[in-house]
Amino acid sequence: MPDGTLLLIDDEGPLRQAIARMLELEGYTVLQAQDARRGLETLQQHADDILVILSDVKLPDGFGLDLLPRYQAKAPLAEVILLTAFGTIADGVQAMKQGAFDYLTKGDSDDQLVVVVDRAVTKARLQRRVAELEKRVGAQYSFESMIGQAPALEQAKRTARQVAQTDATVLLEGPTGAGKELFAQAIHYGSPRRSKPFVALNCSAFPKDLLESELFGYRKGAFTGAQTDKKGLLEEASGGTLFLDEIGELDVMLQAKLLRVLETQEFTKIGDTRPTRVNVRVVAATNRNLRQEAEQGHFRADLYYRLSVVVVAVPPLSARRSDVPLLTRFFLQHFAAKLRRRPLELMPEALQALENYGWPGNVRELKNVLERASILTPPDQPLTVDDLPVELQLAALNSASPDAPPLDERNLRSAEKQHIQRVLLEEHGNKTETARVLGIALTTLYRKIQDYGL
């Protein structure tokens, strides 16, 4: 049996009661109102529950077609079915144009009314699910979801949040792995275009000819193998945002075509003679110094200035090391959930090693390191420095306190152990090379490894 809440607005009491009873027998909860004022009040109180509004066209205090926008404003995810005693085709067409789900004549067929209500309820539920998914996606890719509080990151978020509300072209600058695509998504979902597509394209992932057809599309017969018309990503993103990653890799000819799109919002497909119009916002990203590239003639200067209306500098992880502990805990919890186990306990020296490392691969590298550690570290053991890659173990050794305590046998042994461990790490465990670098016999190295438990 169906379930869900309907609102029935009709000034004819007996007929209203009969329709309500019929729909209640189908499993629906039916709220009733005898005029537009009471109907709007009921809708205001139960807007989150009502899936479908059934409203008479002629009410004592309002006309159905005039009331339709007010119903939609109070419950935008609900469907509206208009009922009339004397329906006309013209009124029905007008109602559908204004967004009504259907326009029915009262008393024609009870079975038809039930079928239409069932379809309207199904559509309303689907719209609610889509809205909930969009809300979740928007929350996932919002500025608030970005992990970190470092000043450099906060400055980038402030700039991006301000430009998100506009249609201005944005250029994201920053090293690979710093999170430029995350910024692009946050700009899109923080903009009025949030309900439209977000389409991403890596300009370095395609050869020139293929990139042109991916970006602009083509007409059937434009070249061998073009069996049908193909929409380009510019068309797919129309109404929304197109994210062009690694824009510095774009071929010079395609740079000229992209410049025309930014200036006129139109382009010509391969094999076509007429321009195609789009409504798309472009967000581009690069790990190069595009201004310098433009000055040296390696990138079109006019395209650079058109792309860089607003430049957002996405900071590398090395410029926001205070965020490493926050990111580390987040990723450990994330991978623990994926592996269905408790998050690993992080030893202080391991966290210190993570903070001291330079992170040339930025946040992406940190994420990969912690995923590897989450997989390989036994769940009942804490995450130690020994569970980290060689590069981070070296960072831990190099960050040891330079304050040397008074020399005695214990401290001399500690210094020798640390030095042998550092060379072993630098030589990636190659004991022959380690012995050569240390200037000792291989048998001596093996004995010291055993003595020190390396």
UniProtKB/TrEMBL annotation:
Coiled coil: none annotated. The modification 4-aspartylphosphate is found at D56. The keyword Chaperone does not apply. Keywords: ATP-binding, DNA-binding, Nucleotide-binding, Phosphoprotein, Transcription, Transcription regulation. PROSITE patterns: RESPONSE_REGULATORY (PS50110), SIGMA54_INTERACT_2 (PS00676), SIGMA54_INTERACT_3 (PS00688), SIGMA54_INTERACT_4 (PS50045). SUPFAM superfamilies: CheY-like, Homeodomain-like, P-loop containing nucleoside triphosphate hydrolases. Residues 146-375 form the Sigma-54 factor interaction domain. Residues 5-121 form the Response regulatory domain. PANTHER family: SIGMA L-DEPENDENT TRANSCRIPTIONAL REGULATOR YQIR-RELATED (PTHR32071:SF121), TRANSCRIPTIONAL REGULATORY PROTEIN (PTHR32071). This is Sigma-54 dependent transcriptional regulator. It comes from Hymenobacter cellulosivorans.
